[in-house]
Amino acid sequence: MLGGVGKLLTAFGTKSIDVYEWTQANVRKARLPNGPIWGNLALPRPRLQFNGWKLAHAVTKADYLVERNLLLPGLGFLLQIDGIIDFSAGANLRLVPGSVATLNDFTRTSLTGRVGQGLSLLFAQSKGYRFVCHLASDGDVVRHMASALPTKKLKAADFLFENGGGRRVILESKASFSQLVNEPSLIKSVLKTALMDQVDGGIEEPLVDALGSWFQGFGDLIDGFWGSF
After folding, report:
1. How far apart are the first and last CA of the chain?
2. How far is 81 from 73, CA to CA, in rounded Å?
3. Are 137 and 159 in contact (CB under 8 A)?
4. Spatial separation of the C-alpha atoms in residues 224 and 20, rounded to whole Å
5. For the CA atoms of 114, 23, 208, 167, what is the dihedral angle to 10 degrees?
6. Which of 22, 79, 128, 163 falls between 20 and 30 A from 120, CA-CA?
7. What pTM was estimated for this model as a whole?
8. Can you give the pLDDT of all 229 residues of the chain as single tens digits?
């Protein structure tokens, strides 16, 4: 019991992950040159800092379409990821070695997406934006897109944010545990699909930010953040 409490308390220490920016021009290219180099495409930006409780709050906030107290869902998330995400291994957030193999396919995909959305919310907040709503799950947005282009099946980006000055931004989150290294061509393909299929037309001149968290060789958590940050 005490050991479990101790593990839970480690989640409240400050953690961080690497942040990289991709230019829109590189994302929109038909293809990258042969042998693309990550450092030539992904520009490093200040690391995103947070703690386990902030991550849990962000993940569960993204989970729900209604306003509610997130204390118990947040605690539930921290308990669920025990043995999966290691909060005690220094400042750099990482997976527990071999933890991915302990989850079945559906659970792994679901948890990856939830963590990715939580990191997306934390990133937007770090840029001075507050959460407004879930775009992809908003009935009015879905109906508007269906009526605007009835012959084409469109999918909205995940979230809408707004800053203190009333400036709004839409954000699409992507995540995958399938990569052991940052593979530029595959990442570019994921970002391009999200940009062109879910963001274009939503705002003027969307910019692209790509966030990559390298989990000590056990997999990448890649998220795309779109908007005029």
Report:
1. 44
2. 12
3. no
4. 10
5. 150
6. 79
7. 0.78
8. 445 666 677 777 788 888 888 888 898 899 998 999 998 998 898 989 998 899 999 999 999 988 889 999 999 999 888 888 887 766 677 777 787 778 888 888 888 889 889 999 999 999 999 888 887 777 776 676 666 666 566 677 788 888 888 888 888 887 754 566 788 898 888 888 888 777 765 433 332 333 332 222 222 223 333 333 3
